[in-house]
Amino acid sequence: MSLPNCPKCSSEYTYEDGDLLICPECSYEWKEGELSQAEEQVVIKDAVGNILADGDAVTVIKDLKIKGSSSVVKVGTKVKSIRLLTDSSDGHDIDCKIEGIGQMKLKSEFVKKV
Protein backbone atom coordinates (compact mmCIF):
# COMPACT_ATOMS: atom_id res chain seq x y z
CA MET A 1 0.00 0.00 0.00
CA SER A 2 1.39 3.37 -1.02
CA LEU A 3 0.84 6.30 1.34
CA PRO A 4 0.16 9.80 -0.02
CA ASN A 5 2.75 12.56 0.14
CA CYS A 6 2.41 15.17 2.89
CA PRO A 7 -0.11 17.86 1.84
CA LYS A 8 1.90 20.54 3.63
CA CYS A 9 5.51 19.94 2.50
CA SER A 10 5.07 17.20 -0.16
CA SER A 11 7.42 14.81 1.65
CA GLU A 12 7.21 11.21 0.47
CA TYR A 13 8.25 9.81 3.87
CA THR A 14 4.82 9.77 5.51
CA TYR A 15 3.80 6.98 7.86
CA GLU A 16 0.66 5.71 9.59
CA ASP A 17 -0.03 5.92 13.31
CA GLY A 18 -3.45 4.46 13.99
CA ASP A 19 -5.92 6.38 11.83
CA LEU A 20 -3.54 9.34 11.36
CA LEU A 21 -0.92 9.93 8.69
CA ILE A 22 2.19 11.74 9.93
CA CYS A 23 4.99 13.55 8.14
CA PRO A 24 8.37 13.14 9.89
CA GLU A 25 9.86 16.16 8.11
CA CYS A 26 7.33 18.87 9.09
CA SER A 27 5.42 17.03 11.87
CA TYR A 28 2.09 17.54 10.10
CA GLU A 29 -0.71 15.10 11.03
CA TRP A 30 -3.88 14.43 9.04
CA LYS A 31 -6.49 11.79 8.30
CA GLU A 32 -6.40 10.32 4.83
CA GLY A 33 -8.88 11.99 2.48
CA GLU A 34 -9.60 14.73 5.01
CA LEU A 35 -8.35 18.31 4.93
CA SER A 36 -9.93 21.13 6.87
CA GLN A 37 -11.29 24.15 5.00
CA ALA A 38 -8.52 26.32 6.45
CA GLU A 39 -5.86 24.06 4.95
CA GLU A 40 -7.59 23.88 1.57
CA GLN A 41 -7.79 27.64 1.25
CA VAL A 42 -4.78 29.62 2.42
CA VAL A 43 -5.59 33.18 3.53
CA ILE A 44 -2.81 35.73 3.22
CA LYS A 45 -3.15 38.95 5.24
CA ASP A 46 -1.20 42.20 5.14
CA ALA A 47 0.54 43.84 8.12
CA VAL A 48 -2.71 45.24 9.55
CA GLY A 49 -4.86 42.16 8.97
CA ASN A 50 -6.57 42.93 5.66
CA ILE A 51 -7.07 39.88 3.44
CA LEU A 52 -5.07 40.09 0.22
CA ALA A 53 -6.14 38.78 -3.19
CA ASP A 54 -4.53 38.47 -6.61
CA GLY A 55 -4.52 41.82 -8.42
CA ASP A 56 -4.61 43.98 -5.28
CA ALA A 57 -2.44 47.07 -4.89
CA VAL A 58 -0.27 47.38 -1.79
CA THR A 59 2.12 49.87 -0.20
CA VAL A 60 5.45 48.91 1.38
CA ILE A 61 5.50 49.89 5.09
CA LYS A 62 9.22 49.40 5.81
CA ASP A 63 12.47 50.00 3.93
CA LEU A 64 13.41 46.64 2.43
CA LYS A 65 17.00 45.86 1.44
CA ILE A 66 17.26 43.83 -1.73
CA LYS A 67 19.40 40.76 -1.20
CA GLY A 68 22.54 40.78 -3.35
CA SER A 69 22.18 44.45 -4.21
CA SER A 70 22.75 47.84 -2.67
CA SER A 71 19.24 48.94 -3.70
CA VAL A 72 16.39 49.49 -1.24
CA VAL A 73 12.61 49.40 -1.67
CA LYS A 74 11.57 52.57 0.16
CA VAL A 75 8.65 53.03 2.57
CA GLY A 76 5.54 54.13 0.68
CA THR A 77 6.43 52.38 -2.58
CA LYS A 78 3.17 51.39 -4.29
CA VAL A 79 2.98 47.97 -5.90
CA LYS A 80 0.14 47.22 -8.32
CA SER A 81 -1.29 43.89 -9.45
CA ILE A 82 0.26 41.54 -6.90
CA ARG A 83 0.10 37.77 -7.29
CA LEU A 84 -0.20 35.59 -4.20
CA LEU A 85 2.04 32.55 -3.74
CA THR A 86 0.44 29.87 -1.57
CA ASP A 87 3.20 27.27 -1.85
CA SER A 88 6.16 29.40 -0.82
CA SER A 89 8.27 27.82 1.92
CA ASP A 90 10.57 30.81 2.53
CA GLY A 91 7.84 33.21 3.73
CA HIS A 92 7.75 35.32 0.58
CA ASP A 93 4.08 35.05 -0.33
CA ILE A 94 3.67 37.94 -2.80
CA ASP A 95 5.08 38.01 -6.33
CA CYS A 96 5.12 41.44 -7.95
CA LYS A 97 6.86 43.85 -10.28
CA ILE A 98 8.15 47.04 -8.67
CA GLU A 99 8.67 50.00 -10.97
CA GLY A 100 12.36 50.88 -11.26
CA ILE A 101 13.48 47.61 -9.62
CA GLY A 102 11.76 44.78 -11.47
CA GLN A 103 10.31 41.41 -10.57
CA MET A 104 10.61 40.36 -6.93
CA LYS A 105 8.94 38.53 -4.07
CA LEU A 106 7.75 40.21 -0.86
CA LYS A 107 6.55 39.06 2.53
CA SER A 108 2.97 40.08 3.30
CA GLU A 109 4.00 41.30 6.77
CA PHE A 110 5.79 44.27 5.15
CA VAL A 111 2.92 45.59 3.00
CA LYS A 112 -0.43 47.28 3.55
CA LYS A 113 -3.41 47.01 1.20
CA VAL A 114 -4.28 50.27 -0.57
Automatic annotation (TrEMBL):
Residues 2-30 form the Protein YjdM N-terminal domain. Gene3D superfamilies: 2.20.25.10, SH3 Domains (2.30.30.40). Coiled coil: none annotated. It comes from the Bacteria. It holds the Pfam family YjdM. Residues 44-114 form the Protein YjdM C-terminal domain. Belongs to the YjdM family. This is Alkylphosphonate utilization operon protein PhnA.
